[in-house]
Amino acid sequence: MEYDKPFKTYDEQIKILRDKYGVLINDYDFAKNVLISISYNDLIGGFKNILKKDSNSVNEITIEYLYELHLLDKSIQAFILKYSLFVENLFKNVMAYVIASSFGVDVNKYLDANNYQVYSAGTSFKENVYSEILLILIDKKREYQPTQYYVEKYNHIPPWILFKNISFGDSINLYNVLKKEQKEMVINILFNNSNTMTYDQKVEIIRNGLTNIRIFRNLAAHNLSFAEFRVKKSIQPKQLYQVLPGLIYMTEDLTQPLNVDKKACKGLYSAVLIILLLLNTNELKSLFVTDFMNAVFHGYNDEADKQKIELFTDYCKLTAMPKNLFERLHKYLKVQNNIL
């Protein structure tokens, strides 16, 4: 059988990069070490669709540039991983607070099916939530700590302990099947009682926004295609305009988001927006922006460095993020500081 993707030696991979895609290779040993550490597929497969000049040829780019672009991608992935974990913890804390205050700390009561919708937003309480959590509660291998510690030492498992073991996806599913009273409590805390949007708009932003963060976190964690990924359920930039002033660019009459924002909200930008929205202090928001800039400029913020600017410009093409992203972020922080 003639395979579509046969094995290729490093030398053969370098020849393909040079002859088929036009990648400039001045240091052969460097190119080989790049392929050893990154892999051909991650190096060219992740970036060729945006940077190519035509259907086959990369636009006169060097192996060094592709390598630096890959490092930038990994740096931003690490940044997203860090803050996705922070948002996941924040969300679970709020969920545990609302559920405990509403239904108590006895697992048989706060997980009583009568407290939840049978089915909502494509989520079944019994099949998508309770069946997953039950595996943690009946764990016989004692792998789920601290939940199993509470099983052995105490007479109940409060929500804030159980939620340390449920996945981010399970916590989002649990949110989906909350009844309106509890959902309102969650979104009032997350949105700081803001009345700039309707209840339904807030529910949708949290549901789709958190799902997008989880997806990008998983892509980064499992070394899957990250930069060019587009979500199926994008958040609506027109809704976010009210709660993220300065970040969403609208038409002059403020009736519609610019097309660049509509496209951006289908990619990584959606995760960036929701993370920034949910960070609950100005200090955390400022740290988020600083860390983001460090991920791009490696701590120096040297905008005179032409290569760094070119790298980030190309990365914005890959991800559909606005090229003036940091200008927007600083504008948003300025507005926030004036409000508070």
Quick overview of this protein structure:
The chain is built from 18 helices and two strands.
Helix content: 55-70%
Major beta sheet, strand line-up: 1-2
Strand residues, percent:
under 5%
**Mean pLDDT figure:** 89
Structural class: mainly alpha
Overall spatial form: globular
Q: Count of helical segments? A: 18
Q: What is the succession of H and E elements?
A: HHHHHHEEHHHHHHHHHHHH
How many strands in all? 2
Low-confidence spans = none
Note the main attributes of this structure:
mainly alpha, single chain, 2 strands, two-stranded antiparallel sheet, globular, 340 residues
Give the arrangement of secondary structure elements:
Blueprint: H1 10-19, H2 28-37, H3 40-45, H4 48-51, H5 63-103, H6 107-110, E1 119-120, E2 123-124, H7 125-137, H8 147-153, H9 159-162, H10 168-176, H11 180-190, H12 199-221, H13 237-243, H14 259-264, H15 268-278, H16 282-297, H17 306-319, H18 325-339
Antiparallel strand pairs: 1-2
Helix pairs in contact: 1-2, 5-11, 5-12, 5-15, 5-16, 5-17, 7-10, 10-12, 12-15, 16-18
